[in-house]
Amino acid sequence: MKTANDYRIVVRGAGDIATGSIYRLYKAGFRPILLEIDKPSAIRRTVAFSEAVYDGATEIEGVTARLAKNLDEAVKIAEADELPILLDAEGKTIGDYRPDAVVDAILAKKNLGTSKEMAPLTIALGPGFEAGKDCDYVIETMRGHNLGRVISEGPAMPNTGTPGAIAGVTKDRVIHSPDKGVMRNVNKIGDVVQKGEVIAYIEDEEGKKTDIEASISGLLRGLIRDGFIVTEGFKIADIDPRLEEHDNCFTISDKARSIGGSVLELITADYISKLTKK
Fold first, then answer.
1. Three-state SS across 102-151?
2. Longest alpha-carbon distance in the chain
3. Are residues 139 and 233 in the same domain?
4. How many Cβ atoms are within 10 Å of 94's Cβ, its own excluded?
5. What confidence score (pLDDT) does residue 256 get?
6. Could you tell me if 153 and 194 lie in one domain?
7. Are 34 and 93 in contact (CB under 8 A)?
8. Is the CB of residue 17 less than 8 Å from the CB of residue 259?
């Protein structure tokens, strides 16, 4: 009998939101191949499978993602019950692998090359896509009543540029780089920080250091990787004002799980449809 592991899935992107979809697919028995760029920029690194690009492998809630050198090795990693991740920004693997489904989970707020022709089922997360044109389905990613809604025609809600509220705090909880240079971390994810405290600094080519101060008091939920080269305005940190939510720094978010449930819904329905036709 054909199993879920025989249903081929490619997920473009493996950041923290993508990880929610990837994790739920894995727990349902699917073994997607993940595609990433060579320098992923997730700030919620403790819950992003993309960290395997740097470390060779990473484990999130008991599930391991492992970097593969090529498609053959990726398939073997999947057969060994892990998640393979390949460096493939352009999605060239898709043509060779011929998946049943492609999920664009890059969340770039624009389409970086995904099309309906890539697979029999194509799904995209968030703004930048139009269901029925760029892909078969779009999943709403904006927090609120419609989070996770499956859209079969038209786009997701446009990007507002304002982060979703956590304990009433929106844009103030997210920190962007004031300058370009190399990120040097002082604190680590999970630390309690006070407003105005220096949590990192940016070092430019001439050795000049620009301090990065905590914008609010709370838990440092996200912090871009030490040594990462950033540009001015680049998102580099995220602070959660809820001190009692320390464990949340190391588990997949409610938002990522909600979106992941919708991705799983669509793929499971397609998988069952294929089974019943055989």
1. EEECCCCCCCCCCCHHHCCEEEEECCCCEECCCECEEECCCCCCCCCCEE
2. 65
3. no
4. 22
5. 97
6. no
7. no
8. yes
Which of the residues in the chain have pLDDT under 70? 1-4, 278
Residue 247 lies in a domain: no
pLDDT at residue number 1: 37
Q: Does a structural domain hold residue 192?
A: yes
Residue 164 lies in a domain: no
- The Cα–Cα gap between 61 and 20 comes to 11
- Report whether 76 contacts 96 (CB < 8 A): no
The two structure tokens encoding residue 41: 């920029």
Helices and strands: H and E segment counts in the chain: 5, 19
Question: Are the C-beta atoms of residues 131 and 118 closer than 8 Å to each other?
Answer: no
* Same domain, residue pair 132 and 257: yes
Joined tokens for residue 97: 């692998």
**Up-side HSE of residue 104: CA atoms within 13 Å toward CB?**
33
Indicate if 154 and 177 belong to the same structural domain.
no
Domain that holds residue 92: 4-159+253-277
Torsion of CA 22, 28, 31, 36, to 10 degrees: 0
230: enclosing H helix or E strand: strand 229-230
If DSSP codes are grouped into helix, strand and coil, which group holds residue 245?
helix
pLDDT, position 156: 94
Q: Bridge partners of 65?
A: 58, 83
Q: Compute φ and ψ for 228, nearest 5 degrees.
A: -70, 140
Using the Cα atoms of residue 138, residue 84, residue 9 and residue 26 in order, give the sign of their dihedral.
negative
Task: Say how many domains are in the chain.
Answer: 2
Sign of CA dihedral 104, 110, 115, 118: negative
| pLDDT in the model for residue 168 | 77
Smallest CA-to-CA distance from 147 within 16, 12, 17, 14 is with 17
Give yes or no for a contact between 91 and 27, defined as CB atoms under 8 angstroms apart: no
Query: In which residue are the tokens 């054909």 written?
Result: 2
